[in-house]
User: Which sequence fits this backbone?
């Protein structure tokens, strides 16, 4: 077991640096090619949903509400609306079920606000001199990419164990009318794995806002539990209604990591006013979603309990992989005192915080030894982690042996980057 690096004498640290350098050299010589970047389901997870490929045949194409093979049904087939209403904790009238990607739904809803404004708002956001989003960070790089693409400025807000740091959020949102939105991954946050507390949800719903402010509540990991007793998540739309701010909540989810990534079904939930507004634009964009796929999902799962049972099987597959990451960290890094690892109870990621100023170097060293990591900084707006500290690890896709090997390399790379830094 390694000792705390900070507590070592400089001679001890120099010896440790030599030892870890040699270890890194040994990994380099192995010619590994491992990838810990991709938050994708593994083949065994995808196999769980193969029933989708056969559960709807010519005899089942008529769903309540019409023939799913034809145009129409802009807001989704009724059975899918019911399923996703339960999934997101709203009424069927408060949900629209769409195509395969929640990323697309989120992108399009922001683009509509940019071009046309939001109900009750001050007109198109794109005509404002300045539009800003709050970005709890570390966060999801593809959220940040939407903002960057549209020219929306981003302000990072620190994340605590129960959600974004609310004093900061309240003070910014109440005082600055350029802040129009905020990203949230409220359950098993990408990448820190935390779930927002009831208090945080209530404060988000109740806080004063200087502008036509919206919360983009990306519940991508709503049902992705790794334990049997998941921490409940308070419903944001309910809380916003109670607070008298019903239009504030825009909630999203999909089955991308429930069934097939890229061939699942996505949904948005919000007040009836917001849903009507979205549909008024969507009706120009589309003559209707892929209702065949919606029907497949409805038939495959039946109801929310069907989804929950299915997700327990996912958990059985990926739990050992998460265990391999945290086990390696405990054995190899914890005692050095130079890194901390999140302890996710669900979702797809780990968040690894290294000594300040060493994350980019760690990624470089891991790459030299054949392990690809998500670029340092990716979890912060504009790819800029001000402390050069945070790394995201995605353990679902590689197999168990690959994860174990990758973690050996990652732990060595973290140590080497840190010892180099401490050596000046
Ligand atoms: C937080 C979050 N939201 C959305 C997505 C993508 O969802 P979809 O496949 O429905 O576009 C991901 C995928 O990694 C994610 O982590």
Assistant:
């Amino acid at each position: 077991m390694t000792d705390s690096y900070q507590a070592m004498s400089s001679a001890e640290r120099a010896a440790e640096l030599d030892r870890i350098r040699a270890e890194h050299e040994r990994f380099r010589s192995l010619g590994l090619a491992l990838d810990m970047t991709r938050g994708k389901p593994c083949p065994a997870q995808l196999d769980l949903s193969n029933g989708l490929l056969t559960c709807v045949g010519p005899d089942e194409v008529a769903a309540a509400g019409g023939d799913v093979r034809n145009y129409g049904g802009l807001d989704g087939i009724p059975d899918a609306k019911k399923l996703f209403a339960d999934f997101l904790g709203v009424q069927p009238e408060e949900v629209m079920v769409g195509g395969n990607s929640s990323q697309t739904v989120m992108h399009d809803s922001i683009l509509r606000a940019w071009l046309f404004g939001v109900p009750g708002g001050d007109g198109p956001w794109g005509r404002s001199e300045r539009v800003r989003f709050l970005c709890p960070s570390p966060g999801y790089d593809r959220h940040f990419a939407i903002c960057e693409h549209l020219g929306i400025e981003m302000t990072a807000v620190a994340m605590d164990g129960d959600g974004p740091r609310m004093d900061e959020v309240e003070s910014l949102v109440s005082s600055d009318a350029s802040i129009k939105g905020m990203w949230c991954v409220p359950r098993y946050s990408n990448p820190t794995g935390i779930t927002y507390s009831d208090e945080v949800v209530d404060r988000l719903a109740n806080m004063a806002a200087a502008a036509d402010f919206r919360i983009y509540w990306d519940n991508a990991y709503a049902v992705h539990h790794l334990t049997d007793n998941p921490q409940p998540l308070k419903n944001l739309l309910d809380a916003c209604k109670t607070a008298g701010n019903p239009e504030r909540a825009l909630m999203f989810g999909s089955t991308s990591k429930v069934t097939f990534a890229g061939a699942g079904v996505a949904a948005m939930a919000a007040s009836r006013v917001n849903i009507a507004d979205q549909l008024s634009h969507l009706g120009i964009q589309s003559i209707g979603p892929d209702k065949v796929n919606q029907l497949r999902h409805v038939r495959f799962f039946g109801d929310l309990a069907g989804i929950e049972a299915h997700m327990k099987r996912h958990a059985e597959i990926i739990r050992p992989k998460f265990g391999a990451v945290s086990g390696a960290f405990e054995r190899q890094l914890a005692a050095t005192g130079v890194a901390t690892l999140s302890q996710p109870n669900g979702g797809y990621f780990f968040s690894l915080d290294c000594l300040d100023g060493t994350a980019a170097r760690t990624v470089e060293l891991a790459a030299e030894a054949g392990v690809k990591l998500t670029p340092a900084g990716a979890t912060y707006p504009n790819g800029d982690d001000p402390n050069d500290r945070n790394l995201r690890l995605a353990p679902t896709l590689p197999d168990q042996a690959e994860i174990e090997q990758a973690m050996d390399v990652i732990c060595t790379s973290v140590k080497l980057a840190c010892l180099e830094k401490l050596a000046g």
Notes: Residues 39, 101-103, 140, 185, 190, 218, 220, 254, 256, 266 surround pyridoxal-5'-phosphate (CB under 6 Å).
